[in-house]
Amino acid sequence: MEANIESKFKAAVSVDNVVFGFDNNDLKVLLIYRGAEPYKDCWALPGDLISLDQDLEQSAENVLQNLTGLDNIYMDQIHTFGRVDRHPFGRVFTVAYFALIKIQDYMVKPSSWAEEAAWFPINEVPELPFDHMEILEYAKDLLKNKIRHQPIGFELLPKYFTLTEIQSLYEAILETQFDTRNFRKKLLSMNLIVDTGRQQKEVAHRPAKLYKYITKRYAQLQQIGFSFDL
């Protein structure tokens, strides 16, 4: 068995990052414009082969930083994709990571072989190389499931937000429409957000109330069996 061990290591591992953000009522995903082969001059998810001296999580963080300039972003490992023909250069497995960020809190700066980095509305994503569309669809489905049963949607909103903004977020992610009155009644009944006493400024319409999500409150409610469900 030892004599054949070299033949068992003719594969590589990469990481691909699906970074979602929310802006102007649109759910968006971060893509890079590839300046290297394969698939040069194509938009793709930020990804690359892992470094031999780094573990997967560190590699995912470094790849994202090297290609987009984004740093200190919490990411979850979501799935491994290993279709035999997924990479034109050979056998490459990829481990996908998933992140949610507030777009306005980060400055995207493409570097290395990423010629550009830009946010694309989720319904306007161009054709993607490798199996990146499959990875993106997997991440979208995961986001839809998570956002219904965990208050992760607040990770995409500014610190202070209106009820209209949070409803728009949920409608964009779940690709549906809610009855405004019922949505607000259910959300407010959970006691996870509070009226800050502030209002919007410099808006053409009547200023709306601004709310804030209470992180500690959700942790407390979990201890007594609370179930988030929108």
Can you tell me about this structure?
- Helices cover 27% and strands 27% of the residues.
- The protein is α+β, with helices and mostly antiparallel strands and 230 residues long.
- It is built from five helices and nine strands.
- The longest helix has 18 residues, at 132-149.
- Strands 1, 2, 3, 4, 5, 6 and 7 form a seven-stranded mixed β-sheet that branches. Strands 8-9 form a two-stranded antiparallel ribbon.
- The chain has helices at 56-68, 132-149, 163-174, 180-189, 215-222; strands spanning 12-23, 26-34, 43-44, 47-49, 76-81, 92-101, 114-121, 193-199, 209-213.
Quick take:
The protein is of the alpha+beta class and 230 residues long. 27% of the residues lie in helices and 27% in strands. Strand 2 and strand 3 form a beta hairpin.
Keywords:
230 residues, two-stranded antiparallel sheet, disordered N terminus
Secondary-structure map:
Elements: E1 12-23, E2 26-34, E3 43-44, E4 47-49, H1 56-68, E5 76-81, E6 92-101, E7 114-121, H2 132-149, H3 163-174, H4 180-189, E8 193-199, E9 209-213, H5 215-222
The total beta strand count reads: 9
Radius of gyration: 20 Å
The major sheet is characterized as: 7 strands, mixed
Based on secondary structure, the structural category is alpha+beta
- Low-confidence spans: pLDDT under 50, at least 5 residues? 1-5
Number of helices: 5
SSE arrangement, N to C = EEEEHEEEHHHEEH
Distance linking N and C termini: 54 Å
Helicity range: 25-40%
Mean pLDDT: 90
Shape: elongated
Percent strand: 25-35%
